[in-house]
Amino acid sequence: MISENMERLNQMAKERGHPFKILIVDDEEWVGEVFSEFCDVTNAFEVEHARSGLEAVEKVRTNEYDLVTVDLIMPEVSGLEVLSAIKKISPKIPVMVITGNATDRLVNESGLLGASRVLYKPVVFEDFIEELTSTLK
């Protein structure tokens, strides 16, 4: 299944003529790097990072992305606030929430705010690629 999803992603990127641009938002640098490594197994993605909610919102304001991943629990600006701001700036952009400690209430609220998917940490490679494929179709 994983190789099928990677082939599908490569084909989708080839058909559109350029890679999918993804913004990974997580205050923990190593987590963002792991997700980047997941994306690096295929040529279908161009990845950027934001280490804070404020940085993420500014990047979405000034760039176009095909998908954003957002950690729910971050200092200063929460993932819910980031999700809400992103949806106001660019309502059609899919936002995938990735969380390790969120309560059911936070997860439900993220869905109400427009999150396209929710993944729970630790995220395994196969699940990450499957969710990217499904979301970007």
Topology record:
Layout: H1 2-16, E1 20-25, H2 29-39, E2 45-50, H3 53-62, E3 67-71, H4 79-89, E4 95-99, H5 104-112, E5 117-120, H6 125-136
Parallel strand pairs: 1-2, 1-3, 3-4, 4-5
Helix pairs in contact: 1-6, 3-4
Concise account of the structure shown:
With 137 residues, the chain is α/β, with parallel strands linked by helices. It has helices spanning 2-16, 29-39, 53-62, 79-89, 104-112, 125-136; strands at residues 20-25, 45-50, 67-71, 95-99, 117-120.
CATH superfamily: Response regulator
CATH structural fold name? Rossmann fold
Structural domain tally = 1
Oligomer: single chain
Helical/strand content category? alpha/beta
Q: What string, H for helix and E for strand, traces the elements in order?
A: HEHEHEHEHEH
State Rg.
14 Å
Strand content: 15-25%
Distance between the termini: 16 Å
Q: What portion of residues is helical?
A: 40-55%
Second-tier CATH architecture: 3-Layer(aba) Sandwich
Mean pLDDT: 90
Q: Low-confidence parts, pLDDT < 50 over ≥5 residues?
A: none
| Number of beta-strand segments | 5
Can you tell me the CATH class? Alpha Beta
Biggest beta sheet summary: 5 strands, parallel
Structure commentary:
This protein has 137 residues and is of the alpha/beta class. The chain has a single domain (2-136), classed as Response regulator (Rossmann fold, 3-Layer(aba) Sandwich), CATH 3.40.50. It is 50% helix and 19% strand. It contains six helices and five strands. It is globular. It starts with a helix and ends with a helix.
